[in-house]
Specification:
Bound molecules: guanosine-5'-triphosphate, magnesium ion
Distance between the termini: 10 Å
CATH class: Alpha Beta
Low-confidence stretches: none
Shape: globular
Number of helices: 5
CATH superfamily: P-loop containing nucleotide triphosphate hydrolases
Mean pLDDT: 91
Largest sheet: 7 strands, mixed
CATH architecture: 3-Layer(aba) Sandwich
Strand order of the largest sheet: 1-3-4-2-5-6-7
Length: about 190
Amino acid sequence: MDFSQVEFLLSVHSLKQLPEEGMPEIAFAGRSNVGKSSLMNKLIGRKAMVKVSARPGKTQGLNYFQVGNQFHLVDLPGYGYAKVPKGMKDAWLSLISSYLENRNTLRCVVVIIDIRHEAKVQDTQLLEWLREQSIPCLAVYTKIDKLSGSARGKNARILDKGHGIIAEKRVLFSAKTGQGRDELIAALKTFLPS
Ligand SMILES: Nc1nc2c(ncn2[C@@H]2O[C@H](COP(=O)(O)OP(=O)(O)OP(=O)(O)O)[C@@H](O)[C@H]2O)c(=O)[nH]1
Ligand SMILES: [Mg+2]
């Protein structure tokens, strides 16, 4: 994967703003504040191309990034943040689910999960829904820098069990140290045309 040319393309707030289907797309989903945008920055090797915030709810709309003329990376707004007004929550949900369901060029949804917490119902629901829709996905357990080696292994096994994920099919990652970046790239490559 060549990240020497990455640019921000656009922020999509309604289905009709979606760019025409062309390049393959990889979307990044997960709870608010889990570290989706940070993971993307680490992946592309930029400090702040994707906006990051300590405050949950930073990413709104679907933010499109284009990598060379190879593929799109799509940063999705986080879910599970209680302080977002209900009307806005429903609008997000309908935008994101229609995007995920109908986007023919979507090759993989990276579902990002905080390794420190037990299996959360919204993550389980998303993973099950993606499986039902036959949308390929990859689970990434992030913020591993916040745990010691043994706690990492233990928590990863708990999450695998809770979400029905096979250990070989997920990646442990840290946006702080960059650990897991090579594994993430190798896994993502399997979803893209060679
Ligand atoms: N220690 C550590 N902190 C992280 C890691 N990933 C993200 N963070 C921190 O977690 C906070 C949220 O990161 P974001 O990347 O903005 O999270 P997000 O999932 O995009 O959040 P929303 O856009 O609000 O849904 C920031 O303070 C990051 O610095 C990680 O791997 N390790
Ligand atoms: Mg974000």
